[in-house]
Amino acid sequence: MRYSLNLLVPGMVLAVSVACVAALAQTPTYNVGRTPSKEEIQAWDIAVSPAGKELPPGSGTVPEGAKVYAQKCSRCHGPTGTEPGPVRPLVGGQGTLATLNPLRTIGSYWPFATTLWDYINRAMPRTEEGSLQPGEVYALTAFLLFQNGIIQESDVLDAKSLPKVQMPNRSGFVPPEPGWKPREKRPFGFYP
Amino acid sequence: MKTQGLGRRRFLKEGVGLAGLAVGAMRSASGQTLGSAIPEARPLDSLRAYGERSRFVDSVRTPVEGKPVPFYTKLTLTPLQDSIGIITPSALHFVSSHGFDPPEIDPRQHRLMIHGMVDRPLIFTVEELQRLPSVSRIHGIECAGNSYLFLADRKAKTVQETHGKTSCSEWTGVLLSLLLREAGVQKGGNWIVAEGAEAGKHSMSFPVEKGLDDVIVAYGQNGEPVRPEQGYPLRLVIPGWEGTRNIKWLRRIKVGDQPYMTKFESTGYPSLRPDGKSRWFLFEMGPKSVITFPSGEQRLPGRGFYEITGLAWSGRGAIRRVEVSTDGGRSWKDAQLQEPVLRIAHTRFRFPWNWDGEEAMLQCRCTDDLGDVQPSLAELGKLWGVKPDYWLSTTNFTNHFNAIQPWKVNRDGSVHNAIFS
């Protein structure tokens, strides 16, 4: 009897404290800050994930993208995106990853096409970041994927078709599913 | 500080206390100019509203533009050769911001939004965050490319050029775990994407598990507001993880069910191996250490006693041990760790050395409290199945590179980067 009581008491304490933690997690403690409006969230929420749920309406074609590219991108990236200009080439490099001179481009390296949309939309063109309309971003994405031989010239990109684009180096990353555990055992020389 | 002067100033400061090591100390101390009159001290204005360092101290960050980084990537490197103790002065903290200049942000206009898979989306002013319970913790932040920049073209001569993309500060702010609990993370909300307010809106993902552990939304750095180059008015400090994830000018935290695969995490920062496969989401920086004195391009004024000193750190815990070799790795001896020895922070080590005037190869390696040991270049080569000269002949850029850094001392006292010799 004595033993079972001893076992029981810590068990009860544990149960109570777990309940407290769970309760804490459910209700705010400090009530500082305010609730943003739906419009505020929408205006700020520019991140696009591989599933593409956040992609806005609109669409773009390769010829449209070629036009925007010539106007807004070629100054830094060169007329076709293959040039080793001031920035790294956007096009080419397939088959070079396992050589001494690997060329990481959209076509040879990028695992997700949505990343291209996200980055053009948030950070390009330099000095006018965030100024492109969704249709222009779809068009530029289409043009660059076409230049890399990933889509056809007649393909149209929109919120539905873009996340379905298969990138050539999609399986080039280890581990396949990123993850992390605190203080996991690492083999010697794990880094880099 | 001029690199050449460092050794001498150290003697001026410490020479008296080393009288017991008379032979070495006296010889080296002969480097002093013979004392004429005691110099007259010029008075300074004691009422300066914001103090400045002595005009005799000229240690500065050095800028890097152009190759080997794309033209739009601007960096400045911390002068580790002049570092004292473990804290990096805020004005000397390295800067890397993916090509976008630090924005000037009015803190009254700045907001932090937390949304996505949470029960209660929230938006905070900086003042509101400062009302919440705070923490102050000393942590280093290291760029994933640290100690690799310039490696392949042999242009890294000083420790500032080899290892100047790490700095250590006391960070003050609110734990992200507190904010996440206020917002209430929903089931399945396993990832966070964080975003800055600068022109390029730099963004990176990390697991919620880390966010609930030790991540700080920092507004303070070394006893004052975070510097503009470091993210004023708010930045993330993700202890031990590659610098690029420690989002500066933090404006948004979104909880989702997957990593967002932002440009930098899925294309720029993965470590590409010679077989063409990449390790991605490496997150933590491995154990690393470097001798800061004597280091590349410094000159020892003569044989005799020198205290070798340097910094060690690990992105996974506290430094448990630093070993020093002065004979090219044939023998290793434990260095003394200087208190405080903190988790995920620069740790200063010291090692007494009497230089006999002959060629010497100085190196250090560290072990953290998980038992992880810093590898040599040869050991890394073996693991990668390449010869060490792979890193000389490839244009591949290896992030998270943490090989042992050797410095060669020549007979004339000059010190050189010897990683490939």
Brief descriptors of the model:
heterodimer; A: 192 residues; mainly alpha; two-stranded antiparallel sheet; globular; disordered N terminus; B: 421 residues; alpha+beta; five-stranded mixed sheet; 29% strand
Q: How would you portray this structure in words?
A:
The complex is a heterodimer of chains A (192) and B (421). Chain A has six helices and three strands. Chain A is mainly α and 192 residues long. The longest helix of chain B is centred in the first third of the chain and has 12 residues, at 3-14. Chain B contains nine helices and 24 strands. Chain B is globular. Helices cover 14% and strands 29% of the residues of chain B. Classes of the chains: A mainly alpha (192), B alpha+beta (421). The interface between A and B is large, with 61 and 82 residues.
- Give the spatial strand order of the biggest sheet of chain B: 5-4-13-8-9
If helices are DSSP runs of H or I spanning 4 or more residues, what is the number of helices of chain A? 6
List unreliable stretches of 5+ residues of chain B: 1-29
Q: How many alpha or pi helices of chain B?
A: 9
Q: What's the end-to-end separation of chain A, in Å?
A: 57 Å
Tell me the helix content of chain B. Answer: 10-25%
Instruction: Summarize model confidence as the mean pLDDT of chain B.
Output: 90
What is the 3D shape of chain A? Answer: globular
Largest interface: A-B, 61 and 82 residues
Distance between the termini of chain B: 28 Å
Estimate the global geometry of chain B from the Cα principal axes.
globular
Taking strands numbered 1, 2, ... along the chain, how are they ordered across the largest sheet of chain A?
1-2
Count of DSSP E strands of chain A?
Answer: 3
Strand content of chain B: 25-35%
The secondary structure category of chain A is: mainly alpha
Please identify the oligomeric state: heterodimer
